[in-house]
Amino acid sequence: MKKLLLLLVFTFSIFSTHSQDFEYLKVKPKAGDGILNLLYRYELPSDQASIDLFYQINGNKFDKNNNLLKGFKYNLPVAIFSFNNKNIRSSIGISDYNIAKEIENYNKKLLEKKLIRKSFKKSKKLFVPLHLLSSSNEASKIAKKEFKKESEKAKANVYPIFGKKYEKVDIIDSSLSGCVYYLISGHGGPDPGAIGYHNGVELHEDEYAYDVTLRLARNLLQMAATVYIIVQDENDGIRDDKYLNNSSNEKLINGEEIASQQAARLKQRTDIVNELYEKHKEKAKLQQVLEIHIDSRSNSKRIDIFFYYAPNSSEGHSLAKSLHQTINKKYKKAQPGRQYHGTVSERNLFTLRETKAVACYIELGNIRNPQDQIRFLEVNNRQAIANWLSAGLLEYFQNEAMP
Ligand SMILES: [Zn+2]
Question: Is the pTM of this model over 0.85?
Fold first, then answer.
């Protein structure tokens, strides 16, 4: 049965190429909700197979006892298709009239229970529970073929968040196995962060910080670390362009929108990190938070990559120092004669103070200074920064944290 449901999950990637992209219905559980009452509320079967499917389509968003995590949004085994104004069958690519009728009834029920606001004819959003398609012949036939493709993809370490060119990640060695990293790129969503200009092009801090963050994440995955990219933009991936397009559609790893108010925005991030921290507490060899920013100073001021850690945190201090020393060494090698003036200092910042994992805040330069700008406008430089930071993290783990 589990296998059958697996097939069903992948059925949808075919429909999406035939008709249009679909999304899973995403819901945020109420306080006290478990998987069973969530499924029950949404009129879905709650047998073992459905529970297995629920786990499958929600990745690793569970605590160590496989319970739901507070504040996270979850995919329900219900696909949302656009309604084509003709009929249900042609909207989703099936021919069975009875199944179409059941799907129609399902949508009526959701409306009656006020779980959705408008009928599918008005909203053009058709809610299709996966279990209703299990008897659909044409679906399972195509699914078999697709399942093979999809399962190969999963086995091959493909991470679509890195974009087409970089989505495949080869594990090079297992030197960071058991280490958990929370990577936060500064700002995002409604907040672009600092803004600079280069040849008339507007540069947003959040885009460049995100690109370096993704590159760092990929490096750490190559060393078998567990990595959480807290702020995500599913459209961007790792970009090899000099100028990165500005967007405001970044979301959080749990599917939530980024809050528009600053205090709420910071708390969202630390809440996620702290929730996951508890989940990994028993088994992780080390848990660290890296937050990446680009500063804004007056145009003429150059600043080297520098680091903050939480007041009185000796672990934070040694993490920051370790990264700082690595950068210093790398600069000496890459640009002999260049002086590196990056600093390491305490700062009472919300993320540093409130995360349970040891945290380090990294500022990559001055977004308004023409020379500093080269550090994050050149693709090779963004990659080099990521490489240096991952080398520093590895060094820290091997020297300071290895049992
Ligand atoms: Zn910033």
Answer: no
